Amino acid sequence: MPIPTTFQALRVFNEHNTTCPRMTTLTLADLSAGEVVIKTAYSDINYKDALAVTGKGKILKSFPLNAGIDVAGVVVQSDVAHIQIGDKVLVTGCGLGEQRDGGYAEYVRVPASLVVPLPSGLTLQTAMAIGTAGFTAALAVQRLEENGQTPEKGPILVTGATGGVGSLAINLLAGLGYHVTALTSKAEQTDYLRQIGASDVLLSQTIDYGSRPLEKAQWAGAIDNLGGKTLTWLTRTIKPRGNIALIGLASSHELNTTVMPFILRGINLLGINCDEILPATRLHLWQRLATDLYPSNLKAIINQEVTFSDLLTVFNRYIDGKITGRTIIKIADV
């Protein structure tokens, strides 16, 4: 499969301290270094991608850079023996679209150490429907399991429930038999949340956040995408020896709490970073996402599939909080 002389990419420039994304014609020589070249079939949109492309967050570490933290496609060039031309592969996170050219391009070049073979049971499309969001949710679930979480211990609360990570976390946990409560500010999404696995839906507008160091213990565990006052409230309402997997800071990076929940209830606050993990762990989690952690309601979680040419029209809707679930991007046929 020959690599064309030129191809298209969504490249982000910094012009007079302003973030300027635009479709750009590139050559292979323009891409970040690596041993493997992938012809892109699909990518996806994560909240981090929207922050990067709109300039609302300081995500990109250098300019210009192709955006997109995820990619799935077919290998068209490889300098290592264990990755062959024609292999279907994926890469999620690992600095793509942040420190090196990412997945919003018809061709992507990456170090071989970042490449994951497409697990049996997934297609390139479903791999990107899961993407970094699903991988992060799976890592959170695994961390909960490692710290003794079981369905028998009681309900799990998932915050930021309508987003990509939240939606997939709900579906993964429900598939494992957990009673899941979804926390959202969007009452109109109640039916969607129940469809993807939530047993209960809690509206954030109805919460009495309280002010005592310890409030009534309600949750055996939680996956938090918000931070701020919601995370503070969670530390005060988790049951003894319960766990909070902390993924995001969509509301705030602050945490105003006391030591009381930790020393009197023995709760665990587990930080989730899906970039800084060993390749063997990454491969294992992707294998689980194709088997026991496969999201059974993935079709319902896929909000839309957009073409590469329409990609720039979507990001502001993420920033405005108008997107539920997952958006996948069809880059090209492979």
From TrEMBL:
Cross-referenced CDD domains: MDR_yhdh_yhfp (cd05280)
GO molecular function, one term: acryloyl-CoA reductase (NADPH) activity
Domain Enoyl reductase (ER): 21-329
Signal sequence interval, chain numbering: none
PANTHER family listed in its UniProt record: ACRYLYL-COA REDUCTASE ACUI-RELATED, SHORT-CHAIN DEHYDROGENASE/REDUCTASE
Full protein name: Putative quinone oxidoreductase, YhdH/YhfP family
